[in-house]
Amino acid sequence: MTDQPQLHSSIVAMISLASGIAANHPAMGQCQLQRLRDAGIPEHQIDTVIEIARHIRDEAAQKLDAVFDEQSAEAQATIAAEPEEGCGCSTTSSGQSCC
Question: 0.85 cut: is pTM over it?
Fold first, then answer.
């Protein structure tokens, strides 16, 4: 088995930054952003990574919303509302129903 060359640390930071943004990670990629700047990566390249990640995140959210809306409309048209006990939801630790 031959050793594979490792990805350059700036590439790893770009991937991590983009995936963190696209996934709405709470850290928002601040560590990776600083690593890229410390490595001398031009701001226009960092901006491109951020733009692409945001586009992917926003597009995924829009598609998920569209599927939810479609399924919700279909359910409304074909299924009568069930009483709370029939919807299969449980309560939170403080007793709040999710239905």
Answer: no
